[in-house]
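Before relying on records like the one below, remember that each one covers exactly one chain. Contacts with other chains, cofactors or solvent are not represented anywhere in the record.
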Amino acid sequence: MNPLQDAFISYGRADSKQFAQKLSERLTALGNTVWFDVNDIPLGVDYQKQIDDGIEKADNFLYLISPHAVNSDYCNLEIELALKRKKRIIPLLHVEEISYETWQYRNPEGTKDQWEAYRAAGRHSHWDNMHPAIRKINWVYFREGTDDYGDSFEGLLGLLLREKEYVHQHTVLLNNALEWERNQKQTRYLLTGEDRQSAEDWLATQFKDSQPPVVPTDLHYEYITESIKNGDNLMTQVFLSHAEEDAETTDQVRRTLMRSGITTWTYRSDIEFGSDFESALKRGVEEADNVLYLMSPHSLKSKYCQYEIDLAIKLNKRLIIMLAGTVDEIDIPVALRNVQYIDLTDNKTEADYLKDEDDLLRVLKQDATYFNEHKVLLTKALKWERQQRNPCILLQGYELQHAQAWQEVAQARNANGPTEIQKEFIEASKNQTAAVSPDVFISYSRADSDFARKLNNALQRQRKRTWFDQESIASGADFQQEIYKGIETSNFFLFVLSPRSIKSPYCADEVEYAAKLNKRMVTVLHRPVEAKDLHPELGKVQWTDFNANEGEFEANFKGLLQTLDTDPVHLRYHTGLLLKAIEWDKKGRRDDVLLRGSELTEAEQWMGQAVEKEPRPTALQGEYVASSRGALEINRQQATKRQRMVIGGLASLLLLAVAGGGAAAWQWKAATRATKEAELNQARSSGLLSLSLSNDGKALEAWIEAIRAGTFVQKHQVTQPEGLNALQQVILKSNKVRSLNGHDDQVQSVGFSPDGKTLVSGSSDNTIKLWDVETGEEIRSFNGHDDDVWSVGFSPDGKTLVSGSSDNTIKLWDVETGEEIR
């Protein structure tokens, strides 16, 4: 099919073929793409289909006015399609009328009487039979012998450039929407990610001081709002309750709502064939912010409308009534008699309807956030109840705090407050014994939302706690940070493979973050992909093919469950330790966040075992456990100064080993591990342990071995001087161990300059100090904070320092002069 074009040229061949050819060539020479039938219709194809496609894919519809064009059935069909697709139409007046001589040249056998009849029918003129829509539009004049071609052409270029990007986006979205419509409105053709947000922004664009160059079609509105709905877990802002007899009025109201970017639910568009009708109605009401009831004699008699209204009242939904037909008050249910309604029956002009439209939109905007949160929380609570109060659906952390804050507001309202099931759900969430990490983070393209939702529901029914963005991000939260937090807290990272997901930059970012955290990756194949196109991290994993077993979901799901039930203890501990390490890192690596006692012992034992498992420990986990051990040993008051140096040096070396990424590897070796006695004897005779340097080892494996050795020293309380000397000497031979003294209180943060020659430190003595790494001497002290300095860092060029303090300030410092900049 045709690519997108800047312009489509519609013309009458008899009058304007040469002019159209010239115009096409001139526009093309200036870098424009032009659809011109002489050049763009290949042989052996459906002629009309090619023309229709050309119009749909062009930003502008150039109509060359001439007698032949205005009297051409083909040109009129082209105009009608351009109007239907709401294209920017630019009329160019080329020929006003043809003479008798011209007519006779084209009709050599024609008689004078035929010419007169031709004239009487107005077929010789551009005006008499002109399409009404063309009459209303300002023209560009290209009359030969009358108008200056150069000036006219410049005027045309100016029009093509006016709001060019907005007009182009109209074309892009139109063709996306047409593809969606022609593929039975399948979910995978809807907009996702940045494309969806861009479409929403486009739809919201206002032209206050001028006419818009184009306006969206109803298909644009439906496509964009359905994309929004798909991204919101199929929840909507308005449920339309109406009788079939009021379908025309309902469609008008629905168009009004969609034109304002408001998502809607109607039984005609949202109930799939073969599904349970009443269950679908129930879900539609539950998952809508508002129920809009079109009251009429027909809807008052409808059992379905009555069911929807009763349910809306039971669920404390906001009920909005629009009067769609004259009714007797006695027929109105008692519960609705005192409700203010919008009356559509007294509308006589379009202005009357527009006023009602404004009233409706104003009501929907009032407390919109509150009713959205009411809906989201109700949907989760009902899902929890239907799954026998499945604990995996309970709220935690920020979600729970958000729900509790909402409940406080809701209980103070006179109407539409919290339901009993919402209260029970929040209370059950509060009473959880402890926070539980999600079992599975689901990463997918929004184009595959239907499958992802099905997968999420199936996992939850199996008591798997999932992190699924359509359910797990509270309104108002930082989306990207919540995504990262979801990956951090989950034991498995499950990726849904499809052509769209493997090309999505958002999905790739999630994969890379999961890989950075050494998460256990699981892949499920939803739609066929090329293995060569996979992200390298995904390419390492054998996928579960959901197209196998003739696409039977349950059969393939069993295979996925087996994978998710592998080594749960190791995975849960990996996640738990990772979260503690991340917290420690985010809090400036403070000592009060480090591991102590049995927690530290357990972590060291796990690190020793985890090196042989997948997923393996991360560098951050290694640093965290090493720092915990180092801090514990330093604080032991009974230990000797030499012991403190050895253990402190051990922690420093381990940190450097992790950070070095394989530049140096340390391996501790015990002569024999047969018995405790044999280990102690060997340690005494050989100087405890020997430490060897290997250039081709891996930092993390070396760190694990070192931890094992450190645990051995602590466990057997080896304090023999000869053993400690052996260990210390190897450390001292391999690295420069230096103590930098000068602060009067705890050091809370340190950092190296970009060139590695200078160290900066921030302390609870309220000062910042610069140190020479080579000599260990203090270069300069920075004074200006009134409380503990918790965080320090160099700028990328090394010329500026930044510091953060408990005195609630951030300060910038000149490294060279020591002066406070700001």
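Residues 642-649, 651-699, 718-736 have pLDDT under 50 and may be disordered.
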